[in-house]
Amino acid sequence: MALVRREAGHYGSSAVSDTVRFGELVATRVQDGDVLVLTGGLGVGKTHFTKGLAHGLGDGHPVTSPTFALMAVHDGGRIPLFHFDLYRLEHAYELEDTGIYDVLGYEGVCALEWGEQFQDDLTDEYLSVTLSRVEDDPDARSIVLAPHGVRAEELAAQIDEAVVRSGAM
User: Fold this and answer.
1) Which CATH number characterizes residue 19's domain?
2) What is the pTM of this model?
3) Which residues have a Cβ under 8 Å from the Cβ of 79 and sit 6 or more positions away?
4) How many domains does the chain have?
5) How far apart are CA 163 and CA 169, in angstroms?
6) Whole domain around residue 137: which residue ranges?
7) 123-140, pLDDT tens digit by residue?
8) 15-48 per-position pLDDT tens digit
9) Which residues contact 47 (CB under 8 A, 6 or more apart)?
10) I need a labelling partner for 169 at 20 to 30 A (CA). Which of 6, 31, 73, 121 fits?
11) 1 pLDDT exceeds 60?
């Protein structure tokens, strides 16, 4: 594994498998009500991270980006994972039709791809997970965690501890 911890909250991934593994590590720490806002351009690994998250929770079903369905539920693990892709939405009033308000912050963990565009309309308590490409390496990614709220700060610290314990230094 070539997942690298640069400093608390800042990690490097050298391959898709590392991004998936990071999602698996995050899954060991999430709990009911946690919200992850996945930020980054097209093709940076948001869905690969979510694949790891689902696998780490114990759900063995395939994970694809719910771009057209808007939401996918992965409930075969220790807690449900509600995976939203908000890319196609243009206005905050469209959020009501996604079912997001039925689960956000209450049960399971919510992973919101493209959620940053509606952050003011969603929740104040979330962990931002920003993935970006690394210059000169098409497979490498930078992953940055930015907690918003007390629970998100706890979660970020727990994730960092899990990364350190995994030997990703």
Assistant:
1) 3.40.50.300
2) 0.92
3) 30, 31, 32, 57, 107, 108, 109
4) 1
5) 8
6) 4-165
7) 889 999 999 999 989 889
8) 999 999 999 999 999 999 999 999 999 999 999 9
9) 63, 64, 65, 113
10) 31
11) no
